[in-house]
Design brief:
The chain is mainly beta. It has one domain. It contains one helix and eight strands. Strand 5 and strand 6 form a beta hairpin. This is Cytosolic carboxypeptidase N-terminal domain-containing protein. Its cofactor is Zn(2+). InterPro entries: Cytosolic_carboxypeptidase, Pepdidase_M14_N.
Amino acid sequence: MAERSKTAETGSDVGIDEIITGNLSKYAAVPPGYFGQPKKGHLVFDACFESGNLGRVDYITEFEYDLFIRPDTCNPRFRVWFNFTVENVKEFQVRSVCHQVFDYIVL
């Protein structure tokens, strides 16, 4: 897992232990050092809708991502559900969805 990542809203560095307060909005998870427009296959995560709760995504490999799920609004002790969308997938990524690894990290 990556030690640090950039927030979707500000682009500033955040540490693992920092509290995530907002949802990702059309965040493209790209390899470290990649600049420019996301290519097909660079997954775009979105949780900026009612009941969305994805706070951060770290790109690990093309098929592995660390997902940081925000706590439930009325009960910060629990994270019993997750709700977000993923876009910009390649055809082979859709067929191999069983092999896609999302590591859910509870903050």
